[in-house]
Amino acid sequence: MTLRPAAPELPRQRPPAEVPDDIEGALATLSDQHPAAAQLLCLCAVLHAAPVPVDVFTRSLPLLPRPLGGVAPLQFNGLVAALVEPGLAQRSTQGLRLPEPVRDAVREELGDEASGVCRSYAGLLVAAAVPDDVAAPSSWPRWAALAPHLIASDAAHSADPALRRAACRLVVSLLHRGKARPARTIAAELHGGWSELLGPDHPDTLRCAHELARALVAAGALLPARKLLDDTVDRLVTKLGATHPQTRVAAETRRGVLLRMGGMPRPDKSHLKAAHRRRKQP
Fold first, then answer.
1. Cross-referenced InterPro entries, in alphabetical order (predicted)?
2. Environment class of residue 248 by beta-carbon count within 10 Å: exposed (0-12), middle (13-18) or buried (19+)?
3. How far apart are the C-alpha atoms of 215 and 182, rounded to whole Å?
């Protein structure tokens, strides 16, 4: 009888700490003893309830105000422990997540104005963390992990060009992944927000209009896509010129839609018919 070596035991993960009964008291203690951790908690609270990848914070800490902005990446685990041990946050392989009661309490304590400030800083972090590639399948899990946080950063009403670019690239990544419906929903929200905030002729608005049209095409809505592309191409010609790369790309997308709808529009021949009738008159 051959004895097989015993399989090594996997390290047991400790169950997450229970949410404290006195959340407000725990938040006050955190602010007094670990102000940088309190800032981190606020950033997590204004993002989506889904886990936030830890490197979203560690790779861009200098973008944040102090004291959190002055924390070295090697010290970051200490901040996380200050949140996890009292039950204010949970950490997994997917990232940091706040229990819903803690998230609600932090948001209520912040109020609308402070939440907006935190959201703007959170948007800086998320925009800096998106992948460079939108087409490679290897980048899709990362896009999927960051997508809810890009949306929660309120990119549709953001004055940050980097966040707007990241949100538009999210739409492109969804189209590459064959997810036309969420791409259409997100692009429509972004386009509406940017049309109001930046104006319909802003390059970011027009870029988003093109991606919205592509999402409409992918969803089979060819007529709305054509109408949007007609308007977008006209605006791009006026704003950037007919030879600008962005104009040419949008025009090529419109050409593809027209072909799918039955071919390029034929020139108007009504004047030829009128001339033919005149020649037949005695």
1. TPR-like_helical_dom_sf (IPR011990)
2. middle
3. 9
Domain ranges of the chain: 19-129, 133-265
C-alpha to C-alpha distance for 241 and 29, rounded to whole angstroms: 59
Lowest mean pLDDT among 7-16, 60-69, 129-138, 174-183: 7-16
- Quick one: 133-265 is in which CATH superfamily? Tetratricopeptide repeat domain (1.25.40.10)
- Contact criterion met (CB below 8 Å) for 79 and 17: no
Distance between CA 166 and CA 32 in Å, rounded?
A: 35
Instruction: Tell which residue, 166, 184, 168, 176, has the closest CA to residue 135.
Output: 176
The dihedral region occupied by 98, where left means phi > 0, alpha psi between -120 and 50, and beta the remainder, is beta
Question: pTM (2 decimals)?
Answer: 0.86
Among candidate residues 27, 86, 83, the one with its CA nearest the CA of residue 57: 83
